[in-house]
Structures are given as C-alpha cells and as structure tokens.
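Human: For the file, kindly provide a plain-text protein record giving the amino acid sequence and the backbone structure tokens, at your earliest convenience.
Assistant:
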Amino acid sequence: MIGMENQSMNGIMINCMIDSIFFKVYQFFERHEKGGDSTWSASLYISTVEFLIVYSVFMMLDIFSGKKITNTNFIKNNYIIICIIIILIILIIYKINILYFNKNKEKIIKKYKNTKYHKGFMFIIGALIFILFLSPILWNEIYKLIK
C-alpha cells in the first residue's frame, strides 16, 4: 500500500511539472504567435520533449546493452516500417496531449497564473530540447569510448 501512495505522488509531481512547462510555453506562444490557439504549439513542444525523453532512455538502454537492439537485422531490413511506427507514436502522444491540454487549459492557466518564474526558465526549457536532441549522439560517443 505504501508503494502505491508513493507511485501516485510521483505521478502527480510529474504531471505538475509538465503542466508548469506547458503553461510557460503556452504563455510564450501567446505572446509571439499572431492568431490561432497556442495550445496546439505548446502541446507539440510538450509532445516532442516527451518523445525525446523516451527515445533518449531507449538509446541509453541500447548502448549499455552492447548495441544488441539496434544492430539486429530486423531493424536494418525494416527501416521504413520502423520510421512509420515512430511517426505514429509521436502523433498519438501529440493527440493525447492536445486532448488533455484542451480539456485542462483553463485550470492550468488559473493554477500557474501567479507563479513567479526565474527569468532564465525559458532558456532552460529551450536547452532541455537541445540536450535531448543531442543525448543519443552523446551516449553513442560515450559507448565508443568505453568499447
């Protein structure tokens, strides 16, 4: 029972973190986009971050398992199918985020409206995506050094 309480607290913390990032990115797009709903752009950003986190974890596991996953003939022979699956996964994540943020946007805005953020918060959010894009390359280079 204690483990379940802890697990739900972790889920709440992650959800609050994602909501907070969504709010700040949403505010950014509200200021800089002309027309349209910034929910779509902020949801796409959040979806990209979520996908890159999962991808980075997958690449780390692959590298530490000795490249057993990506060196298989199945991946080499079915590259197009795997790319289509990855694109579908991104679209599914995006659709789930759109539904969630459209439903909860007003509640999130109300919750975080008076929150004071450090001036470098948007820089940190931008750096996060940059680091996540580079992390598979960095992990690959680390693997080459270790090997």
Observations:
- Residues 79-112 form the longest helix (34 residues).
- Confidence is low (pLDDT under 50) at residues 1-7.
- The radius of gyration is 18 Å.
- Residues 2-146 form one domain.
